[in-house]
Amino acid sequence: MNYVSRYIFPLRTILLFGVWFCFSFVFAQPARLQEIESPRIVIQKIKALTDTIAQLNDLQLEKKLELSKQAYELALLQNDQTVLAEVLFTLAGIYRSQAFYDIAGSHYNQSLALFQSAGDSLGQARVLIERGFNYLQRSDFDAALTDYQDALHVHEARKDSAEIVNDYLNICSLFLTYFQRKKNASALEDSTLFMAKEYYNQVQPYLKGVSPAIQAKAYNLQGRLLRSEKKFDEAEAAFLACIQIRNAIGDSIRRTSSEISLGVHYLYWGDYLRQSGKPEEAKTQYRKAHPLFTKSLIFKQKANDNQGIVDAYINLGGMNKRMQNYPSAIDTLHLGAKIASDLNLTGDRAHISRLLSEIFEEKGQADSALHYHKLYKKIQDEMFNNQSEQTIRFTEVHFETEKIEKEKLIAQQQSQQKSAQLRLVFIVGTLLVMMIGGIGFYYYQRNQTQKQLMAQQREINSQLVVDLMKEQAIENLNSRLEGQEYERERIARDIHDQLGGTLSAVKLSLEGIKNRLSPGSELHFDRTYQLLDQACTETRQLSHDMMALSLKHLGLEASVKELCHTLNNSGKLHIDFQTLYPQPVKLPQKTERHLYRIVQELIQNVIKHAEATRIVLQISISEGLLTMVLEDNGKGFDPDKTGKKSGMGISNIQARLKDISGHMDIDSQPGRGTTIIIEAPVNP
To answer: What is 90-143 written as a DSSP string?
Structure first.
């Protein structure tokens, strides 16, 4: 009965309501069913149109505009803000690809507003990134930076670590592009290059946790950064790493693009060497570019990518021009010019004509140089006229889009008037909906549970990133400790060998002149001699504190004994040091050094905080495991309350123990003293 009441009755209620709703809706407006398709079919048509648009190249501009207009008209028929936002987003991309940045920006703004109204944060982030790139194309760097940062805030709120890394790379690319577009920018003085490097450095620790595609993007960006600093060897390595990753994941299109980028890098490198008066070394770099450009040409030919074929011919022609291999440069550029002419690629035709003019000018053939220069100017005029025609066409489409939207608003008003007669029917329907509220609540609860599971998964992923950051921080701390240890040993040796030796020499010198003192000055001499003797003692103690010589020559046990003996002589604290193993054991130097510093740190903590008068320190070794126990009779503390406030001393101890695969347990209560147990393998 419970099963029937929970499932069968709600399902029967839904079926009855569905029959009633269809009957009342058809009875009220029978014509509307013939005029309006279901939302699912319309959305499928829109998706099919946008997919077709994505497959078209830039040469099929008219087709793109026509399909976009159809998708926009269909989207307006739906009351779905997200669908309309996606269509506007696609339209904006088409306008941007043709350099109509103002119209593209208008569509991005509308798309963003619709995503915001629909509460779609991921859609907002996508629009912000693409609108930022649109601003970047217009050289509006401030607006682009604002959009990239807003997208970063969205991804940070969602704890999407991969997208956060991608946002940092976008911001880095923005600063680098700004630097490269500035004239006479100095790599040592320009702050924008510094900012680009800062953003790149922030994501380096997290690149291992992101997708290979983002890693490849990071390496490509690293190559551009290094090239801007004239670090051509390191930049080459970064570009090669990018190519290797894209080849490994089977992304042949982006791999070819990266190979072209590497070829262009070699051209930059060669130009720099040539300007530096090293023509032969420059030619070596130019030769490296040749197989890359040739490989890209073969790839583009197999893919029937005519635009890419023309670009490859231009790259090869430019490379041969730099090598002064003029016949090959001319032949290659003529091949590119023929394809560009067949496809009416006016921009590429102008570029090729300019290169040919420069080649013939370098060869001293003034007539041919003048011919191609005039052709270059003529094509530029054609480009201007074509641009004007395209502007008119895009403006017409833009106004048509606005007109369609106005017509849609009018149709909506008419529809609202017609729907007035349905209100009474929907009032009755509302009463029936209340009857099936129970089933709705069930589905709501199930949906909430799914959301909670997804949130938990995102939290787990975020925690993995945090753990990675903590491990990186501990590794960095270990490196700093190793550096500090090395520096302490160096300074200790300098103090012991140089300053100690000098003080000893002064002491001997004073002893030599003691018998030659005038009467009455012995008291002053003795006081001076005592101060010098105290300075020698303190110099030896300082050298020992910084580097226990006995630790290096006699081992951990002797060094700890010497340390305890020194502190016992002070009279402030008594340390009972015990070793519980049959014979001395020589530990690895790193283990002994870390354990000795840990003993120093623990005793210092007792002196500073515990107000103790006695310490018992035991060291034992059994079955390859070293155990160290330190007990004091101090005032104790609550480890749970002070755990989150541990200072640099405890952090250093934990870092040293991690480096030797050890761990530490603390047992303490206020008024009961403290016991600390440390365990570490003899051979970590």
So the answer is: HHHHHHHHTT-HHHHHHHHHHHHHHHHHHT-HHHHHHHHHHHHHHHHHTT-HHH
| Per-residue pLDDT tens over the stretch 455-510 | 888 888 777 776 676 666 556 655 665 666 666 666 765 665 566 667 766 766 66
**What is the C-alpha radius of gyration for the chain, rounded to an integer number of angstroms?**
39
Amino acid at 660: I
- Please give the Cα distance from 354 to 135 (Å, whole number): 29
Phi-psi region for residue 99, left (φ > 0), alpha (ψ -120 to 50) or beta?
Answer: left
Please say whether the beta carbons of 229 and 187 come within 8 A.
yes
24-30: long-range pairs with CB below 8 Å, 24+:
24/425, 24/428, 24/429, 25/422, 25/425, 28/421, 28/422, 28/425, 29/418, 29/421, 29/422
- Yes or no: say if 439 and 10 are a contact pair by the CB < 8 Å rule: yes
Please count the other Cβ atoms lying within 10 Å of the Cβ belonging to residue 23.
11
The CA-atom distances, in angstroms, between 143 and each of 135, 146, 282 are 6, 5, 39
Strand partners, 615: 575, 632
Give the three-state DSSP class for 304: coil
| Helix or strand holding residue 664 (H, E) | strand 663-668
Q: HSE on the CB side for 556, CA within 13 Å?
A: 28
Which H or E element spans position 68? helix 61-77
Q: Which of 530, 571, 593 is nearest to 601 (CA)?
A: 593
- Here the tokens at position 606 are 């007792």
Q: How far apart are CA 289 and CA 270, in angstroms?
A: 10
Which element (helix H / strand E) includes 617? strand 614-622
Paired residues of 616 in beta bridges:
576, 631
Pairing relationship of beta strands 625-632 and 614-622 according to DSSP bridges = antiparallel
Query: Counting runs of H as helices and runs of E as strands, what totals does the chain give?
Result: 28, 5
Q: Please tell me the least confidently modeled range out of 260-269, 351-360, 645-654.
A: 645-654
CA distance 52 to 94: 13
* Interatomic CA distance for residues 618 and 579, integer angstroms: 6
DSSP lists the bridge partners of residue 614 as: 574
Q: Are residues 539 and 495 in contact, defined by beta-carbon separation less than 8 angstroms?
A: yes
CB 510 within 8 A of CB 532: yes
Helix (H, G, I), strand (E, B) or coil at 614: strand
Phi, psi of 619 (to 5 degrees): -130, 125
The tokens 């590497």 sit on which residue? Answer: 262
| Mean of pLDDT over the chain | 78
Tokens of 221: 């960006």
3-class state of residue 662 by DSSP? coil
